[in-house]
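Q: Given only this backbone (415 positions), what sequence would you predict?
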Protein backbone atom coordinates (compact mmCIF):
# COMPACT_ATOMS: atom_id res chain seq x y z
CA UNK A 1 0.00 0.00 0.00
CA UNK A 2 1.47 3.36 -1.03
CA UNK A 3 1.69 6.10 1.56
CA UNK A 4 -1.17 8.04 0.01
CA UNK A 5 -3.38 4.96 0.00
CA UNK A 6 -2.48 4.26 3.60
CA UNK A 7 -3.50 7.77 4.61
CA UNK A 8 -6.76 7.68 2.68
CA UNK A 9 -7.60 4.22 4.09
CA UNK A 10 -7.24 5.58 7.63
CA UNK A 11 -8.87 8.93 6.83
CA UNK A 12 -11.88 7.08 5.39
CA UNK A 13 -12.79 5.77 8.85
CA UNK A 14 -13.47 9.27 10.18
CA UNK A 15 -16.82 10.84 9.62
CA UNK A 16 -17.40 14.56 9.53
CA UNK A 17 -17.58 16.53 11.68
CA UNK A 18 -14.12 15.45 12.81
CA UNK A 19 -13.62 15.01 16.55
CA UNK A 20 -11.93 18.00 18.16
CA UNK A 21 -9.82 15.59 20.20
CA UNK A 22 -8.56 12.20 19.17
CA UNK A 23 -6.95 9.67 21.51
CA UNK A 24 -4.36 7.10 20.49
CA UNK A 25 -3.77 3.93 22.54
CA UNK A 26 0.00 3.88 22.20
CA UNK A 27 1.73 0.70 23.32
CA UNK A 28 4.95 1.87 21.64
CA UNK A 29 4.95 -1.15 19.30
CA UNK A 30 5.18 -0.76 15.52
CA UNK A 31 1.41 -0.81 14.92
CA UNK A 32 0.35 1.92 17.31
CA UNK A 33 3.45 4.06 16.61
CA UNK A 34 2.60 3.91 12.90
CA UNK A 35 -1.01 4.74 13.76
CA UNK A 36 0.08 7.86 15.63
CA UNK A 37 2.22 9.05 12.71
CA UNK A 38 -0.48 8.34 10.14
CA UNK A 39 -3.13 10.18 12.17
CA UNK A 40 -0.81 13.15 12.62
CA UNK A 41 -0.26 13.26 8.85
CA UNK A 42 -3.97 12.80 8.11
CA UNK A 43 -5.08 15.67 10.32
CA UNK A 44 -2.17 18.05 9.86
CA UNK A 45 -3.38 21.63 9.80
CA UNK A 46 -6.89 20.64 10.90
CA UNK A 47 -8.60 21.37 14.15
CA UNK A 48 -8.00 17.91 15.65
CA UNK A 49 -5.85 17.63 18.76
CA UNK A 50 -4.14 14.25 19.08
CA UNK A 51 -3.37 12.88 22.55
CA UNK A 52 -1.87 9.52 23.49
CA UNK A 53 -1.79 7.20 26.49
CA UNK A 54 0.20 4.10 27.40
CA UNK A 55 -0.87 1.51 29.94
CA UNK A 56 1.95 0.25 32.12
CA UNK A 57 0.76 -3.14 33.32
CA UNK A 58 3.68 -3.39 35.71
CA UNK A 59 4.12 -7.06 34.85
CA UNK A 60 7.71 -6.91 33.60
CA UNK A 61 10.70 -5.45 35.38
CA UNK A 62 11.38 -2.88 32.65
CA UNK A 63 7.75 -1.96 31.87
CA UNK A 64 7.90 1.42 33.63
CA UNK A 65 11.05 2.33 31.76
CA UNK A 66 9.46 1.31 28.47
CA UNK A 67 6.35 3.37 29.17
CA UNK A 68 8.63 6.32 29.89
CA UNK A 69 10.40 5.76 26.59
CA UNK A 70 7.07 5.78 24.74
CA UNK A 71 6.13 8.95 26.57
CA UNK A 72 9.34 10.60 25.37
CA UNK A 73 8.74 9.49 21.77
CA UNK A 74 5.24 10.99 21.84
CA UNK A 75 6.34 14.20 23.52
CA UNK A 76 9.07 14.62 20.90
CA UNK A 77 6.34 14.54 18.27
CA UNK A 78 4.49 17.26 20.15
CA UNK A 79 1.79 14.87 21.37
CA UNK A 80 0.39 15.19 24.89
CA UNK A 81 0.98 11.82 26.56
CA UNK A 82 0.01 10.08 29.79
CA UNK A 83 1.18 6.82 31.36
CA UNK A 84 -1.66 4.89 32.99
CA UNK A 85 -0.66 2.51 35.74
CA UNK A 86 -2.30 -0.85 36.41
CA UNK A 87 -1.79 -2.32 39.83
CA UNK A 88 -4.72 -4.67 39.99
CA UNK A 89 -3.07 -8.05 39.38
CA UNK A 90 -3.85 -10.27 42.37
CA UNK A 91 -1.76 -13.21 41.21
CA UNK A 92 -4.65 -15.52 40.29
CA UNK A 93 -7.08 -15.97 37.40
CA UNK A 94 -6.38 -15.39 33.72
CA UNK A 95 -3.61 -12.80 33.60
CA UNK A 96 -3.95 -11.99 29.88
CA UNK A 97 -7.67 -11.48 30.15
CA UNK A 98 -7.47 -9.36 33.30
CA UNK A 99 -4.67 -7.23 31.84
CA UNK A 100 -6.70 -6.65 28.67
CA UNK A 101 -9.86 -5.70 30.54
CA UNK A 102 -7.90 -3.38 32.82
CA UNK A 103 -6.18 -1.80 29.80
CA UNK A 104 -9.48 -1.00 28.14
CA UNK A 105 -10.94 0.36 31.37
CA UNK A 106 -7.94 2.60 32.02
CA UNK A 107 -7.92 3.88 28.43
CA UNK A 108 -11.66 4.52 28.45
CA UNK A 109 -11.44 6.41 31.74
CA UNK A 110 -8.49 8.44 30.43
CA UNK A 111 -10.41 9.35 27.27
CA UNK A 112 -13.51 10.36 29.14
CA UNK A 113 -11.48 12.41 31.67
CA UNK A 114 -9.90 14.30 28.80
CA UNK A 115 -13.05 14.82 26.72
CA UNK A 116 -11.79 12.52 24.00
CA UNK A 117 -14.76 11.12 22.06
CA UNK A 118 -12.77 8.79 19.76
CA UNK A 119 -9.98 6.46 20.84
CA UNK A 120 -7.93 4.89 18.03
CA UNK A 121 -6.30 1.48 18.44
CA UNK A 122 -3.60 -0.06 16.26
CA UNK A 123 -5.11 -3.49 15.48
CA UNK A 124 -4.04 -4.65 12.03
CA UNK A 125 -5.20 -7.09 9.34
CA UNK A 126 -2.75 -9.60 10.84
CA UNK A 127 -4.43 -9.29 14.26
CA UNK A 128 -7.74 -9.83 12.52
CA UNK A 129 -6.56 -12.94 10.63
CA UNK A 130 -4.95 -14.43 13.76
CA UNK A 131 -8.14 -13.81 15.73
CA UNK A 132 -10.22 -15.59 13.07
CA UNK A 133 -7.92 -18.62 13.31
CA UNK A 134 -8.05 -18.64 17.12
CA UNK A 135 -11.84 -18.46 16.98
CA UNK A 136 -11.97 -21.30 14.42
CA UNK A 137 -10.03 -23.40 16.89
CA UNK A 138 -12.84 -22.76 19.39
CA UNK A 139 -15.53 -23.74 16.87
CA UNK A 140 -16.92 -20.22 16.99
CA UNK A 141 -20.12 -19.15 15.28
CA UNK A 142 -20.88 -16.01 13.30
CA UNK A 143 -20.17 -13.62 16.19
CA UNK A 144 -16.81 -15.14 17.07
CA UNK A 145 -15.70 -15.29 13.46
CA UNK A 146 -16.58 -11.65 12.87
CA UNK A 147 -13.56 -11.19 15.16
CA UNK A 148 -12.37 -7.64 15.85
CA UNK A 149 -14.87 -4.86 15.08
CA UNK A 150 -13.70 -1.64 13.37
CA UNK A 151 -15.85 0.44 15.67
CA UNK A 152 -17.34 -0.08 19.12
CA UNK A 153 -19.39 2.38 21.08
CA UNK A 154 -18.64 2.47 24.80
CA UNK A 155 -20.58 4.65 27.20
CA UNK A 156 -18.76 7.90 26.40
CA UNK A 157 -16.06 6.88 23.95
CA UNK A 158 -15.99 5.30 20.48
CA UNK A 159 -13.21 2.75 19.98
CA UNK A 160 -11.95 2.93 16.40
CA UNK A 161 -9.53 0.58 14.65
CA UNK A 162 -8.64 2.29 11.40
CA UNK A 163 -5.76 -0.09 10.54
CA UNK A 164 -7.80 -3.30 10.34
CA UNK A 165 -7.28 -3.51 6.56
CA UNK A 166 -3.55 -2.71 6.75
CA UNK A 167 -0.87 -5.33 7.38
CA UNK A 168 1.83 -5.21 10.02
CA UNK A 169 4.51 -5.35 7.31
CA UNK A 170 3.05 -2.30 5.55
CA UNK A 171 3.20 -0.37 8.81
CA UNK A 172 6.80 -1.41 9.47
CA UNK A 173 7.73 -0.26 5.94
CA UNK A 174 5.95 3.01 6.52
CA UNK A 175 7.83 3.68 9.77
CA UNK A 176 11.16 2.63 8.27
CA UNK A 177 10.64 5.04 5.36
CA UNK A 178 10.02 7.82 7.91
CA UNK A 179 13.15 6.73 9.78
CA UNK A 180 11.07 6.24 12.91
CA UNK A 181 11.64 3.57 15.56
CA UNK A 182 9.37 1.53 17.77
CA UNK A 183 9.70 -0.84 20.74
CA UNK A 184 9.67 -4.60 20.18
CA UNK A 185 7.63 -6.29 22.89
CA UNK A 186 9.49 -9.50 23.88
CA UNK A 187 6.15 -11.25 24.59
CA UNK A 188 5.50 -11.10 20.80
CA UNK A 189 7.94 -14.02 20.56
CA UNK A 190 6.84 -15.90 23.65
CA UNK A 191 5.71 -19.35 22.53
CA UNK A 192 3.48 -19.75 25.56
CA UNK A 193 0.98 -17.40 23.94
CA UNK A 194 -1.52 -18.88 21.52
CA UNK A 195 -1.41 -15.74 19.36
CA UNK A 196 2.36 -16.12 18.87
CA UNK A 197 2.01 -19.76 17.84
CA UNK A 198 -0.81 -18.89 15.44
CA UNK A 199 1.29 -16.06 13.96
CA UNK A 200 4.05 -18.52 13.21
CA UNK A 201 1.61 -21.01 11.68
CA UNK A 202 0.42 -18.31 9.25
CA UNK A 203 3.59 -18.84 7.20
CA UNK A 204 2.49 -22.44 6.53
CA UNK A 205 -1.11 -21.50 5.79
CA UNK A 206 -0.39 -18.72 3.32
CA UNK A 207 0.59 -21.10 0.45
CA UNK A 208 -2.73 -22.95 1.01
CA UNK A 209 -4.67 -19.76 0.30
CA UNK A 210 -5.41 -19.12 3.98
CA UNK A 211 -3.83 -15.72 3.68
CA UNK A 212 -4.19 -12.70 5.95
CA UNK A 213 -6.38 -11.09 3.30
CA UNK A 214 -8.63 -14.16 2.93
CA UNK A 215 -9.09 -14.55 6.68
CA UNK A 216 -9.78 -10.84 7.11
CA UNK A 217 -12.44 -11.10 4.41
CA UNK A 218 -14.05 -13.96 6.36
CA UNK A 219 -14.24 -11.61 9.35
CA UNK A 220 -15.84 -8.89 7.24
CA UNK A 221 -18.40 -11.30 5.77
CA UNK A 222 -19.24 -12.61 9.21
CA UNK A 223 -19.63 -9.10 10.59
CA UNK A 224 -22.20 -8.38 7.86
CA UNK A 225 -24.05 -11.61 8.65
CA UNK A 226 -23.92 -10.79 12.34
CA UNK A 227 -25.59 -7.44 11.77
CA UNK A 228 -28.48 -9.14 9.97
CA UNK A 229 -28.85 -11.75 12.71
CA UNK A 230 -28.81 -9.08 15.41
CA UNK A 231 -31.46 -7.13 13.57
CA UNK A 232 -33.83 -10.10 13.40
CA UNK A 233 -33.07 -11.25 16.96
CA UNK A 234 -33.95 -7.79 18.22
CA UNK A 235 -37.28 -7.89 16.39
CA UNK A 236 -37.91 -11.45 17.62
CA UNK A 237 -37.08 -10.55 21.24
CA UNK A 238 -39.60 -7.72 21.20
CA UNK A 239 -42.22 -10.19 20.02
CA UNK A 240 -41.51 -13.22 22.25
CA UNK A 241 -39.89 -11.77 25.38
CA UNK A 242 -41.30 -9.60 28.11
CA UNK A 243 -39.53 -8.32 31.20
CA UNK A 244 -41.42 -9.12 34.37
CA UNK A 245 -39.97 -8.13 37.74
CA UNK A 246 -36.43 -8.29 36.43
CA UNK A 247 -36.89 -11.70 34.78
CA UNK A 248 -37.03 -12.38 31.04
CA UNK A 249 -40.26 -14.21 30.24
CA UNK A 250 -40.65 -15.97 26.90
CA UNK A 251 -44.02 -16.78 25.38
CA UNK A 252 -43.63 -20.45 24.52
CA UNK A 253 -46.34 -20.50 21.85
CA UNK A 254 -44.27 -18.06 19.78
CA UNK A 255 -40.98 -19.95 19.99
CA UNK A 256 -41.90 -22.70 17.50
CA UNK A 257 -41.51 -20.38 14.53
CA UNK A 258 -38.10 -19.07 15.54
CA UNK A 259 -34.98 -20.47 13.85
CA UNK A 260 -32.50 -22.00 16.32
CA UNK A 261 -29.90 -19.28 15.68
CA UNK A 262 -32.34 -16.49 16.55
CA UNK A 263 -33.64 -18.27 19.68
CA UNK A 264 -30.05 -19.02 20.65
CA UNK A 265 -29.23 -15.30 20.49
CA UNK A 266 -32.29 -14.22 22.47
CA UNK A 267 -31.63 -16.86 25.11
CA UNK A 268 -27.88 -16.19 25.38
CA UNK A 269 -28.51 -12.49 25.89
CA UNK A 270 -31.32 -13.18 28.34
CA UNK A 271 -29.01 -15.35 30.47
CA UNK A 272 -26.25 -12.74 30.29
CA UNK A 273 -28.59 -9.88 31.10
CA UNK A 274 -30.25 -11.66 34.04
CA UNK A 275 -26.95 -12.92 35.52
CA UNK A 276 -25.04 -9.70 34.80
CA UNK A 277 -22.13 -11.75 33.39
CA UNK A 278 -19.42 -9.92 31.44
CA UNK A 279 -19.28 -12.51 28.67
CA UNK A 280 -22.06 -14.53 27.03
CA UNK A 281 -22.09 -18.27 27.64
CA UNK A 282 -20.23 -20.36 25.09
CA UNK A 283 -22.24 -21.89 22.28
CA UNK A 284 -21.49 -25.46 23.30
CA UNK A 285 -23.20 -25.12 26.72
CA UNK A 286 -26.32 -23.58 25.20
CA UNK A 287 -27.72 -26.73 23.53
CA UNK A 288 -29.42 -27.99 26.68
CA UNK A 289 -30.83 -24.55 27.46
CA UNK A 290 -32.34 -24.30 24.01
CA UNK A 291 -33.97 -27.68 24.45
CA UNK A 292 -35.34 -26.75 27.89
CA UNK A 293 -36.84 -23.56 26.52
CA UNK A 294 -38.40 -25.23 23.50
CA UNK A 295 -39.92 -28.01 25.65
CA UNK A 296 -40.97 -25.79 28.55
CA UNK A 297 -38.64 -27.65 30.91
CA UNK A 298 -36.45 -26.31 33.72
CA UNK A 299 -32.70 -25.91 34.11
CA UNK A 300 -30.09 -24.01 36.11
CA UNK A 301 -27.40 -22.42 33.99
CA UNK A 302 -24.95 -19.51 34.12
CA UNK A 303 -26.29 -18.04 37.37
CA UNK A 304 -29.89 -18.25 36.16
CA UNK A 305 -32.92 -20.49 36.61
CA UNK A 306 -34.85 -21.38 33.48
CA UNK A 307 -38.38 -22.34 34.51
CA UNK A 308 -41.22 -23.57 32.33
CA UNK A 309 -44.58 -22.45 33.79
CA UNK A 310 -48.00 -22.46 32.15
CA UNK A 311 -46.96 -21.70 28.57
CA UNK A 312 -44.24 -19.27 29.59
CA UNK A 313 -40.53 -19.74 30.18
CA UNK A 314 -39.05 -17.63 32.95
CA UNK A 315 -35.37 -16.81 33.01
CA UNK A 316 -34.63 -15.52 36.50
CA UNK A 317 -31.63 -15.07 38.73
CA UNK A 318 -30.41 -18.12 40.63
CA UNK A 319 -30.24 -16.95 44.22
CA UNK A 320 -27.44 -19.32 45.03
CA UNK A 321 -25.25 -17.57 42.47
CA UNK A 322 -25.66 -14.15 44.08
CA UNK A 323 -22.54 -13.10 45.91
CA UNK A 324 -23.08 -12.01 49.50
CA UNK A 325 -21.38 -8.65 48.99
CA UNK A 326 -23.72 -7.90 46.09
CA UNK A 327 -26.75 -8.03 48.37
CA UNK A 328 -27.28 -4.70 50.06
CA UNK A 329 -30.13 -2.81 51.61
CA UNK A 330 -31.22 -0.03 49.27
CA UNK A 331 -30.09 -2.04 46.27
CA UNK A 332 -31.32 -5.47 47.02
CA UNK A 333 -30.32 -8.77 45.45
CA UNK A 334 -27.41 -7.78 43.20
CA UNK A 335 -29.11 -4.70 41.86
CA UNK A 336 -32.32 -6.40 40.87
CA UNK A 337 -34.50 -4.24 43.09
CA UNK A 338 -34.26 -0.66 44.21
CA UNK A 339 -35.71 0.03 47.62
CA UNK A 340 -36.77 3.46 48.68
CA UNK A 341 -38.86 5.20 51.26
CA UNK A 342 -37.91 3.08 54.26
CA UNK A 343 -35.22 3.45 56.85
CA UNK A 344 -32.07 1.97 55.27
CA UNK A 345 -30.60 1.33 58.68
CA UNK A 346 -33.66 -0.64 59.71
CA UNK A 347 -32.96 -3.74 57.75
CA UNK A 348 -30.26 -6.21 56.98
CA UNK A 349 -30.19 -8.40 53.94
CA UNK A 350 -28.16 -11.59 53.92
CA UNK A 351 -27.66 -14.15 51.24
CA UNK A 352 -28.31 -17.62 52.61
CA UNK A 353 -26.94 -19.33 49.51
CA UNK A 354 -29.22 -22.17 48.45
CA UNK A 355 -31.75 -21.34 51.14
CA UNK A 356 -32.56 -17.89 49.79
CA UNK A 357 -32.33 -14.37 51.06
CA UNK A 358 -32.83 -13.39 54.67
CA UNK A 359 -34.35 -10.02 55.37
CA UNK A 360 -34.08 -9.27 59.05
CA UNK A 361 -34.54 -6.20 61.17
CA UNK A 362 -31.42 -4.91 62.85
CA UNK A 363 -31.04 -3.80 66.46
CA UNK A 364 -33.49 -0.91 66.05
CA UNK A 365 -36.32 -3.27 65.42
CA UNK A 366 -35.49 -6.12 67.72
CA UNK A 367 -38.50 -8.20 68.34
CA UNK A 368 -39.66 -8.24 64.72
CA UNK A 369 -39.27 -11.57 63.01
CA UNK A 370 -37.00 -11.89 60.00
CA UNK A 371 -38.33 -13.01 56.66
CA UNK A 372 -36.67 -15.64 54.55
CA UNK A 373 -37.28 -15.41 50.84
CA UNK A 374 -36.84 -18.88 49.56
CA UNK A 375 -34.65 -19.59 46.61
CA UNK A 376 -37.02 -22.22 45.28
CA UNK A 377 -38.82 -21.12 42.18
CA UNK A 378 -41.15 -18.42 43.16
CA UNK A 379 -41.84 -15.83 40.56
CA UNK A 380 -42.24 -12.82 42.72
CA UNK A 381 -43.02 -9.36 41.64
CA UNK A 382 -41.00 -6.62 43.25
CA UNK A 383 -43.92 -5.85 45.52
CA UNK A 384 -44.36 -9.46 46.65
CA UNK A 385 -40.68 -10.14 46.89
CA UNK A 386 -39.49 -7.15 48.75
CA UNK A 387 -41.94 -4.52 49.81
CA UNK A 388 -44.60 -6.75 51.36
CA UNK A 389 -42.30 -8.74 53.69
CA UNK A 390 -40.57 -5.55 54.71
CA UNK A 391 -43.88 -3.86 55.41
CA UNK A 392 -44.81 -6.86 57.56
CA UNK A 393 -41.74 -6.03 59.58
CA UNK A 394 -42.98 -2.49 60.06
CA UNK A 395 -40.82 -0.92 57.40
CA UNK A 396 -42.46 1.34 54.82
CA UNK A 397 -40.51 0.47 51.74
CA UNK A 398 -41.40 0.67 48.13
CA UNK A 399 -39.58 -1.55 45.71
CA UNK A 400 -39.14 -1.31 41.98
CA UNK A 401 -37.27 -3.33 39.44
CA UNK A 402 -33.90 -1.75 38.84
CA UNK A 403 -33.25 -3.21 35.41
CA UNK A 404 -35.18 -1.87 32.47
CA UNK A 405 -36.50 -4.07 29.70
CA UNK A 406 -35.19 -1.68 27.04
CA UNK A 407 -31.70 -2.48 28.28
CA UNK A 408 -32.34 -6.15 27.55
CA UNK A 409 -33.63 -5.59 24.01
CA UNK A 410 -30.70 -3.24 23.28
CA UNK A 411 -28.26 -5.90 24.49
CA UNK A 412 -29.14 -7.95 21.41
CA UNK A 413 -27.43 -5.38 19.23
CA UNK A 414 -23.67 -4.86 19.34
CA UNK A 415 -22.83 -1.19 19.39
N1 LIG B 1 -0.02 -1.13 26.96
C1 LIG B 1 -0.77 -0.50 26.06
N2 LIG B 1 -1.01 0.81 26.18
C2 LIG B 1 -1.79 1.47 25.29
N3 LIG B 1 -2.35 0.88 24.23
C3 LIG B 1 -2.15 -0.43 24.05
C4 LIG B 1 -1.35 -1.20 24.96
N4 LIG B 1 -1.32 -2.47 24.51
C5 LIG B 1 -2.07 -2.51 23.40
N5 LIG B 1 -2.56 -1.28 23.11
C6 LIG B 1 -3.42 -0.90 21.97
O1 LIG B 1 -4.08 -2.06 21.49
C7 LIG B 1 -3.68 -2.31 20.14
C8 LIG B 1 -3.64 -3.80 19.92
O2 LIG B 1 -2.64 -4.38 20.71
P1 LIG B 1 -2.72 -5.87 21.13
O3 LIG B 1 -3.04 -6.70 19.93
O4 LIG B 1 -1.52 -6.20 21.94
O5 LIG B 1 -3.95 -5.67 22.04
P2 LIG B 1 -5.02 -6.62 22.60
O6 LIG B 1 -5.46 -5.89 23.82
O7 LIG B 1 -4.49 -8.00 22.69
O8 LIG B 1 -6.19 -6.51 21.58
P3 LIG B 1 -7.64 -7.10 21.76
O9 LIG B 1 -7.82 -7.45 23.16
O10 LIG B 1 -8.54 -5.96 21.39
O11 LIG B 1 -7.68 -8.25 20.84
C9 LIG B 1 -2.34 -1.63 20.02
O12 LIG B 1 -2.03 -1.34 18.66
C10 LIG B 1 -2.57 -0.38 20.83
O13 LIG B 1 -3.32 0.57 20.10
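A: Predicted residues:
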Amino acid sequence: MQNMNLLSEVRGHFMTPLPRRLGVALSGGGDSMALLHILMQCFQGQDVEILAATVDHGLRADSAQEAQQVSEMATKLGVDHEVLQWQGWQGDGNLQDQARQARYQLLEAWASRNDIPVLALGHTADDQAETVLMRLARSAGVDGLSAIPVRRQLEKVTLLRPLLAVTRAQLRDYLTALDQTWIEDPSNHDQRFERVRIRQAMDLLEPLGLSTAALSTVAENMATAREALEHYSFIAARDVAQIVSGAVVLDQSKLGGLPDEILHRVLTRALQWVSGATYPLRRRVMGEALEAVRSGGSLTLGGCRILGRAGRVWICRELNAVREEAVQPGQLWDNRWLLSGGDPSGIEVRSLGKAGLLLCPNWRQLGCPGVVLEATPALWTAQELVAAPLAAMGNKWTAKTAKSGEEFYASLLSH
